[in-house]
Amino acid sequence: MTEYPPPPPQSPQPPYAPQPMSQSDERLWATLAHAGVILFGFIPPLIIWLVFRERSAFVNDQAKEALNWSILMAIASFVGAITTIAIIGFVILPLVGIAVLVFGILAAIAANKGEQYRYPFNWRIIK
């Protein structure tokens, strides 16, 4: 009768599975998702949401909120650019810029504290 060696120990998770994030990492990536909208539009929250949505519920929620906000602001900027022909766009575009800056800073500060932030007006396209 031949004896077989014992099976190798099983690791709790495969090395390619998403690893949970620490609270400081969650706050960092949520803050970057909100602050990224100010400088680069919808690209930072989109990348952060796609990469980290399975690793942290907090980052998933805040990146989606920032992504929805940036999509709404992109639409408002487009409308403002089109309506510059009728002069009203010259009012809309600065208001959009001010809203992105002010609410982006407020959202980044709240996310850095670990608080969930909701923009006062947002079109939640991505759920």
TrEMBL record:
Residues 1-22 are annotated as: Disordered. The chain crosses the membrane at residues 28-52, 66-86, 92-111. It is found in: Membrane. Pfam families: MamF_MmsF. Residues 1-18 have a biased composition (Pro residues). It comes from the Bacteria. Keywords: Membrane, Transmembrane, Transmembrane helix. It is a multi-pass membrane protein. This is DUF4870 domain-containing protein.
